[in-house]
Amino acid sequence: MKKGRNLMVVAMVLLLTMGMVFAEGSAEAQASKPAVEYLTFGGSDIGGLWFTEAATLTTQWNADIPGIVWTVDTRGGGTANAFWLATGKVAAALNNTPGIRAAMEGEGYFEEHGKQDFSNARVFAALHRSYMTAVVKSDSSIKSFEDLRGKRIAVGQPGNSIQTVLPMICDVMGWDYEKDFKKEYIADYDAFDALRTGQIDAVVEWIGLGAGAFEEEFENGGIRLLAMKEDTISKLSAKYPFYVGGTIAQGAYKGQPETSVPFTQDFLTVQASMSDDVVYQMCKVLYDRLNDGTLISTHRAFNEAGFPSYIEKISLLELHDGAKKFYDEIGVVLD
Fold this sequence. Notes:
Elements: H1 2-22, H2 27-31, E1 37-42, H3 49-64, E2 68-73, H4 78-86, E3 92-96, H5 97-105, E4 121-137, E5 152-154, H6 162-173, E6 182-184, H7 188-196, E7 202-207, H8 212-220, E8 223-225, H9 230-239, E9 244-248, E10 259-271, H10 276-291, H11 294-298, H12 311-315, E11 318-319, H13 321-330
Parallel strand pairs: 1-2, 1-3, 4-11, 5-6, 5-7
Antiparallel strand pairs: 3-10, 4-7, 4-8, 4-10, 9-10
Helix pairs in contact: 1-3, 3-10, 4-5, 6-9, 10-13
């Protein structure tokens, strides 16, 4: 199943890229154009919201910014993207605060890699909120997030955000991340197959609302969300202030009640070496396509995207100079 989806995505990206690069005129016209720069954008596994957003954004940038062709790396997630951003393996990426902070401190996944240096990384825009999203079968005896200790859980493919978030939650709950779960490192669609066939007890992710695999599975029915107790959320926020207590609204997923969970806000990052002009154009395209409804029509998560004054605070990174120019133009003053 996973192989088939990967092949489909590769084909889609190739077709999009070929159309953008070759469908604009004669050989003489092509010869007069400047060289194209090919860049990699850190997204996430197929079925995740970050994959949808990354594919949508890069397709739009490819169409609207000449001389740049983006491709999406689908192997990662919040943890892997933080590592790749710090080490220069991607030109830009989707990131979140838990991943960046853990990399800076050399914690969790990064214990074996050491503290990461983000002096060459910059932020340029905010995206959606990501929520603790834990799912079990409707008839499961598991009633809340706190009941997951000792259970078999899917935590995404290696490098997924939850693999950074869950150790922090375990820290405040007195659990042992390595010993208190039987973890399966599989992508979302395969995880739901495993849940329905009884190979695992829960799918646990740190994602925004409306990730493809989750939307589809809730439409199919037979599963439900797990809430986290307010006391657990309070402990988490007290130690790690970038986690905020909130809810997944009633009906956000078909048939699900309002569900208390923590969340963070995700953001877009880029290498500091990226030219000011390119980053400025990336901001402008994002701004224009948000305002004309193009991006929001592709996914509801883009309703939460924008250029907030607190962008440096939530990302722990400096704003790129090209983005500063754009923020100035639209009248945003940084906190």
